[in-house]
Amino acid sequence: MGRTVLILGGGTGGVVAGHVLAKVLPKTDRVALVDRSAVHLFRAGLPLVVTGRRRPEDISRSLDSLEKLGVQFIQAEVEEFIPENKAVRTDQGFLSYDSLIIALGAEQELSPGPSSVYNPYDLQGAQQLAQELAKFRQGEIVLFISGLPFPGAIAPYEIALLVDAYFRRRGLRRKIRITFVTPESRLLEFASPYYSKKLRGIMEKRGIRILTGRQVHSLAKGSSLVLSDGDLPGDLFIGIPRHRGPSPIRGSIIADPSGWLIVDPTTLSTSLPDVYAIGDAAGIRSPAGTYIPKVGFFAHYQAEVVARNLALSYANKKPRFRFVGGAKGASMLASFRQGCFVSADVYATPPKVTLSSPNPLAYLTKMLFERYWLKAWF
Ligand SMILES: Cc1cc2nc3c(=O)[nH]c(=O)nc-3n(C[C@H](O)[C@H](O)[C@H](O)COP(=O)(O)OP(=O)(O)OC[C@H]3O[C@@H](n4cnc5c(N)ncnc54)[C@H](O)[C@@H]3O)c2cc1C
Fold this sequence. Notes:
The chain is α/β, with parallel strands linked by helices. The protein folds into two domains: about 5-105 and about 245-325, FAD/NAD(P)-binding domain; about 120-240, FAD/NAD(P)-binding domain, CATH 3.50.50.60. The protein contains eight helices and 23 strands. The strands form seven sheets. Strands 5-2-1-9-20 form a five-stranded parallel beta sheet, covered by helices on one side. The protein has a five-stranded parallel beta sheet with strand order 11-18-12-13-14. The longest helix has 19 residues, at about 295-315. The protein is globular. The structure holds flavin-adenine dinucleotide. Flavin-adenine dinucleotide binds next to α1, β2, α2 and α7.
C-alpha cells in the first residue's frame, strides 16, 4: 500500500513541496495539502497591492489547481498536532500521515489597535491601505516594525520606498513626511554594517526619516505611536505586525520557546520521526545565533530538499539533498522602475548578505519572477 505525505500549508513552501513530490514519488503514494484558504497568496506582491499596482486576484491562485498534478487539496483549518497518532485534527476531521511537512508560515499577532493602523502584510490590510493612500494628500506617514523576526526580510524597506515613489508620481511628495521605525539596531541587521549603511543611504536620499532601535509599546494612542523613548505623532500608520510560530504546533516538543519550529538546518527534519518543518514556520539559527531571514526563496529551496530526500528514503536510498542557506537573484523594489539585487549566504560565518545599488534590471527580474511563479506553479 502507498504512503501518505501530508503537507500543512499552501504557501510558497507547501506548493513547491506538492509539485516536487508529485513528480518524484510513485503514483501509489498519496500527497495531500491542507490550507484554510482556497487560494495561494503570492505575498511578495503585497507591496504592489499597497501602491495600487496589483489587484488581489493578480497575486492569488486557486490551490485546486494542484489536483491536476495528483496532489489532493483539502480546504481545512489545522487545529491540533497529534504526533503520537501521526495525525492532525482539522475543522473537517482527522488526517493521518506517514510523513508530515509543516509549512504553515508565520502567524501574525493581532494586537488590538485603532483602525488607523494598516497592516500591509495581509491582503485585506494591503487593500485598505491602498484606498487610504489614494486619499492621502499631506501629512506624516509612519511605517513601523512591531517585532523581530518578521517574514520578507526586505519587505518593510521595499514598502517604504514604494510609498515614497507612489507620492512622487502623484506630485505630492513634498507635502508628505515618511518615517520608518524599527527595533533593529541597524537596517537589514542580518547584513554587514556596510550594507546596512548602504540601505540607509538609499532610503535617506529619498527623504525617508529612519529611527532604529525603537520598540513599539502600543500601536497608537490617539494619533501617536508609543515608542520606548517617547511618542511619535503621525497621520497614517503602517504597522508590520509581530509574528510567531504557527499555533497548532506552538505548544509541541518541536517548537522553541518563541513558537518557531526547531529543525536540522540542512535537512529540515525535526526531532519527531517523519516530521519536517520548512519556510517561515521554521526557526533556524545562523552560526551567529540569530534567526535566518524568513524569505520565499528559502521556503522554496527547503521544500525541494525535503521532497527529494523523502523520495530517496521511500526508495530505500540515502537522502543526499541539503539546504545550504544561500540565495541569489532576489530583489527589492526601490521604485516602479528600479530595484536592488539581494544575495544571501546565511550559513556563512559571519553571514553574508549583499544589496546592489538601485537599477532597472533588478526591477525587471522581480517582475519576471512574479509572472513565472504565478504561471508555472499553478
Ligand atoms: C509583504 C511581503 C513581501 C515579501 N516579499 C518577499 C520577496 O520579495 N522575496 C522573498 O523571497 N520573500 C518575500 N516575502 C516572504 C515570503 O512571502 C515568505 O517567506 C513565504 O511566503 C514563506 O512561505 P511559507 O510556505 O513558509 O509560508 P506562507 O507562504 O505564509 O504560507 C503558509 C500557508 O499556511 C496556511 N495556514 C497557516 N495556518 C494555518 C492553519 N492553522 N490551518 C490551515 N492553513 C493554515 C496559510 O493560509 C498559508 O497559505 C514577503 C513576505 C511579505 C509578507
